[in-house]
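Weekly modeling sync, notes
Attendees: AB, CL, MP (scribe)

Item 1: holo prediction request
CL wants a bound-state model with adenosine-5'-diphosphate before deciding which constructs to order. AB pointed out that an apo prediction alone won't tell us much about the pocket. Agreed to run with the ligand included and paste results into these notes for async review.

Input as submitted:
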Amino acid sequence: MATTILPDAPAPAPAEGTSTLAGSRRGDRLFKGVLTVAALAVPVLMAFLVYELYVGSRLAIERYGLGFVAGTTWDPVAEEFGAAPLIFGTLLSSLLALVIAVPLSLGVAIYLTEFAPRAVRQPIAFIIELLAAIPSVVYGLWGIFVLIPLLKAHVFPFLRDTLGFLPFFQGPIYGPSMLAASIILAIMIMPFIMSVAREVLLAVPGSQREAALALGATRWEAVVSAILPYARSGILGAIILGLGRALGETMAVTMLIGNRHEIAASLFAPGYTMAAVIANEFSEAATDIHFAALTYVALVLFLVTVTVNAAARLLIWRVGAGGGGKRS
Amino acid sequence: MAEPPPRLATVHLTAVYGKFTAVKDVSLGFRANTVNALIGPSGCGKSTFLRTLNRMHELSDGGWITGKVLLDGEDIYGSRVSPMQLRRRIGMVFQKPTPFPTMSIYDNVAAGLRLNGRRPRGELDEIVERSLRDAALWEEVKDRLQASALALSGGQQQRLCIARSIAPRPQVVLLDEPTASLDPGGTQRIEELVFELKKDYTIVIVTHNMQQAARVSDTTSFFYMGAMIESGPTRQIFTAPREERTEAYITGRFG
Ligand SMILES: Nc1ncnc2c1ncn2[C@@H]1O[C@H](COP(=O)(O)OP(=O)(O)O)[C@@H](O)[C@H]1O
Ligand SMILES: [Mg+2]
C-alpha cells in the first residue's frame, strides 16, 4: 500500500496572520526590541549618573573650580576643600596593590595551569575563587585584628631597617597606613586577577606549549617564551579588572588606611582615598557645601576610574592588535 | 658491505598512556640522510611513536615507555640525557602550523637559538637566513622579516615552522603529518622541501597520504593498532608488500 506525499490539490492558503511560518518573526522583533532597550539603558544610565553627580556637586564646582583637584586642605568647618590627597591616595593604593598582587596572582595562575599536580589544580582554584566572595568589611576586620598587628610588629620595622634609606620606608609606624591599605587591597584583588589569568592561560592552545618544548625549552622557558606572550592581552585584561576593583574598593580601605588628608612620601603614614572619604563623611555632611564637595569627589572618582579603564582598554587593544614586529 | 649503523633506532619500544598501550614493541632503524615515512590508519600509534623519538611522549598524561631509542648508538632515555638538549638535536614539526603569533618571522626562526643563550646579532642573522633558505621560504619573506608570523599563509607558516626547527641544526627532523592542513600547492612545496632536507638531515615523516609516502620517502613503515607490521624500502612496500594487511591498506581496502 503506497501513500502519496503530493496532495491532489494545492492546500488552501492560510488566512492572513494565521500562518505557522509567519509567527516566529514577531517574537524575534519583540526580543530584539527588548534587548535594544536594555542595551540603550546602559549609556542612558551613565549619562544620568554623570548629570546627577554634576548637579549635586555644582555648588563646589562653582566655588573651587578645577583647583579642587589640586587643593590639599580638607576642612569642613572652614569650608575649605581640596581633593589632591584623596586622588593621590586612591591612585597610589591601587597602584601599590597591583604591584603586590600582579606577580603573586600570575605566579599562582601559572603554577596552577602548568606545574601543579593535576589533582590539586581544581581544588586550589576553587578555594581562591571563594576568597572573592568574602565581603570587604570582613577583610577590613581581619586587617585590623590580624594584618595590622603583624605589620606593625614585624613587617614595617623590618622594612624600615632594610630599606629605610628610601623615603618610602621612613618615619613613625602607626599601623593604619597607605601600605596596610595597599596590602589588604592586594589580597582582595588577587582572586580576581588569579582566576581570570588562569582562564586565559587555560585557553592557550597546547600546541603552543608543545612547539616551545619541541625546540628544547624547559617548562618554564615554554611559559615565558610561548604561553605568556600568547596570553598577554588576556592577562592585561585580568590586571585591569583588578585595578578597577582596587580603585573603587571602599570599606576595607577605610578601615586600614588611617583616613588622614595628607600626601606623605612614607608608606607607613596614613592616607585617604576618594571612596573612603565619601563613605565616612556623607552621612554627617552638615552643610550644603560639604555635601557638594563630597559629590564633587564622587564625580572625580568616576572620571578617574573611567579614564584609567579606558586607557587600559586602549592598551589591551594595541597589544592585541600589534602582534609581532618587535625587534630585539 | 655492511649496512651503515642507523642514525636513529628503536629497540623493542613500547609506549603507554596510563594503562593503554599505544605502541607495541617496535624495533626500527632510520639511516642518516634518508626520508622515512610512517603510514597506517588513524589511531594506530604513528604520532605516539614519533613523539617517543624526541621524548615529547613523556609529557603526555601517564606517558611512559619501555625499550630503547638510540641516537647514534646512545640511549636517549639514559639517565644522563637531558630531554631539552636532546630536543635541540631532534627537531619536530606538527600537523597544524604552530608559529608563535606574537613574534615576528625573524624571531620565530630565532626562538630555538635564543633558548641556548645570547648570540651575536650577525651570527643570528646568518642562521636565520640560512634556515629560511633551507626551508625554501627566504625569497618570500626576506623583505618582511619583522612582520608578524601570522601574516603568512598556512603553507608558509608550516615552512616557517620547519625553518624554526632546523635553525638549531638538529640531526633528525620529525614531521607529524605536516601537510594535513595545507592545500595542494602548499603540500607540494613541503614535499619538495622534505626531499631537499635529507641532504642535511635524517627525516621521519608521518603521513596519511599514500602518494606522499611514495613520492618523498626512502623507507616506509606500516603501523597497525600500535604494532609495526612491515618496514622496508618504499618501492618494495608499495609494489611487493609481504604482509597482507600492508597490501590491504595501501590499496585502500581499509583505513
Ligand atoms: N594523550 C593521550 N592519552 C591517552 N591516549 C592517547 C593520547 N594520545 C593518543 N592516545 C591514543 O593512542 C592511540 C594512538 O594515537 P596516535 O599516536 O595519535 O595515533 P595516530 O597518530 O596514528 O593517528 C590512539 O588510540 C589514541 O586514542
Ligand atoms: Mg597522529
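Recorded for review: The radius of gyration of chain B is 18 Å.
Action items: CL to compare against the apo run; MP to circulate these notes.
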